[in-house]
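Ticket #4471: structure output looks truncated?

Reporter: J.K.
Steps to reproduce: submitted the chain below (381 residues) through the standard prediction queue, then opened the result file.
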Amino acid sequence: MPSPHPDFLAPYQADLDGLRGRDRFRALSKRGGLDFASNDYLGLAESEEYREAARAALARGVPLGAGGSRLLRGNHAEHEALEVEAARFFGAECALFFGAGFSANEALLATLPQRGDIILYDELIHASAHEGMRLSRAESRAVAHNDVGAFEEAVRAAGGTGRVWIVVESLYSMDGDIAPLETLAGMAGRHGAFLLIDEAHATGVLGPGGRGLAHGLEGRDNVLTLHTCGKALGLSGALVCLPRVLREFLINRCRNFIFATAPSPLLAATIRAALGVIERADDRRAALAERVRRVGEALRRLAVAQPSGTHIQPVIVGSDKSALALAERMQAHGHDIRAIRPPTVPEGTARLRISLTLNVSDVQTDAMIALLAQELAEAPS
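Returned output as attached by the reporter:
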């Protein structure tokens, strides 16, 4: 007789088969080849400076684990020292440390906008923001990417009984373009709106001393910034910079913060040291800026793609299948470049996301661009 029990796994297998059929199945792969895929833009993740900072913290007795949430026994002196230093470094009134950038972004939007508020977000905002908005009590509406006029119109038409929240990235992770932050900040000020800026891909690389593109806006009552520590800082976690009253509100109301085991005190100590490394890293930033310039010239000369002008360079291919095939060919030549497909990017814009880092040389970068141009020229139409 057939089993009376259903096949519990069948729906999941069917979903995976559907992803395979659309060239959107994902799988983990070991790192290999030259780094044109990571977010370790300044080449610090495996640096001796960080190893020494971790060794020094361990030597003075800093533990690896917190042992509980920060509202219980998990609040370590290293967490508080990091938050004080982060507020000073970025120029904010306060900072709050989270274990990951995704959870921090989700937490902000799930907790701070209130019923009656309206969230106006750039249509290319990160998935973490979408997850936070899904959990929020506030209404949310998409706005055309980097379109100041569209944002102005959306703010004027917002209605609602509460505040407007304008949510953007300073440097967009898949297109490498920069938001008009000063204009958006002026708009937020005129309309009494909050401005939430995700600095994930700018922190460490752009702004004075690597403080990000929103540095001149930090410290305002209506501006919040998110600085992730897992990209140019080369570690993990996230620092939210914001007014003191909003920090206290998160500590009291944010479920992601209240119920999560506190991040590693050793990590907090290492990030605090990393802020000093970043502040002194003008030579690294200059070297990366020169690489961006060189790559931009090569992209134009070889007609590969329109240069983004930043360390994130997309090469739009179009179809998912074509992007995957091109990435595989580049990987076969020893270049770790990944294909990015919908829903991460809009339909019809599957691409290679080339990340420019200091983990490779100029010679290796030049060779990669030349090979990419050849592969694109020989690709079937």
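Triage note (M.O.): checked the attachment and the full token line is present. The domain at 31-46+281-378 is CATH 3.90.1150.10 (Aspartate Aminotransferase, domain 1).
Status: closed, working as intended.
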